[in-house]
Write a structure and sequence with these properties.
single chain, about 200 residues, mainly beta, Immunoglobulin-like, globular
Length: about 200
């Protein structure tokens, strides 16, 4: 019930060189669980923004009244990675020793914001639900931790996909929950939900 909402939320997008350079933003209005209305859209050209500083932008909504006030910072991507099993970031014994030293008790207060990081190996899924008429699915896996999101590639026509990917997330809140969701890719349509699991970091 507000024409001037304040969200004050931070989202971290992992921007790699092979991704598109436009940040697309949509504003939606929700009446109830079933009815939603698009209030407007705007776009930000990431390549035009100065790096290593916070940019304050007032973005008018296209063809609609209103604007968005956003703070956008473009910085080198640190602490997050996607790799194959054979080049796993924690596979090197020397690197493991450095990390153990970095997070040992005597160094606890050296960098308060550096809580640690989580490494997840997504190996495979078994006996997924068939989402296509052919009796198969085109599954991919999405990992979310706080407002960070990474995903695997799609394995087509398979109910027992093998991804064999390693994902590394920086941890910002030890009370966060890792959510792992499997979707079926459906062309231009929204993906179909195939299953989900939630893992509290405190349980690891």
């Amino acid at each position: 019930k507000s024409a001037n909402p304040q969200w004050r939320e931070q989202f971290d997008f992992h921007y790699f060189s092979d991704r598109k350079d436009m940040l697309d933003i949509e504003v939606w209005r929700k009446d109830n669980k079933k009815h939603e209305e698009l209030l407007g859209t705007c776009h930000v050209d990431i390549t035009a923004l100065p790096t290593k500083q916070t940019n304050c932008l007032e973005l008018p909504l296209e063809k609609r009244p209103g604007s968005l006030l956003m703070l956008i910072a473009v910085a080198p991507c640190t602490g997050v990675s996607i790799s194959d099993l054979c080049v796993c970031p924690l596979g090197d014994p020397n690197e493991r020793q450095q990390i153990s030293q970095r997070y040992c008790i005597k160094n606890s207060f050296r960098d308060i914001k550096d809580i640690g990081f989580l490494q997840v190996k997504v190996l495979k899924a078994v006996d997924l639900m068939a989402a296509d008429f052919s009796g198969k699915s085109d599954p991919f896996c999405v990992l979310e931790l706080g407002n960070d999101m990474l995903q695997t590639h799609t394995v087509y026509k398979n109910l027992n996909p093998e991804w064999n990917k390693v994902f590394t997330f920086p941890i910002k809140d030890i009370h966060d929950v890792l959510e792992v969701t499997v979707f079926d890719e459906d062309g231009d349509k929204p993906p179909d939900f195939l299953g989900k699991v939630a893992i509290p970091l405190l349980s690891v």
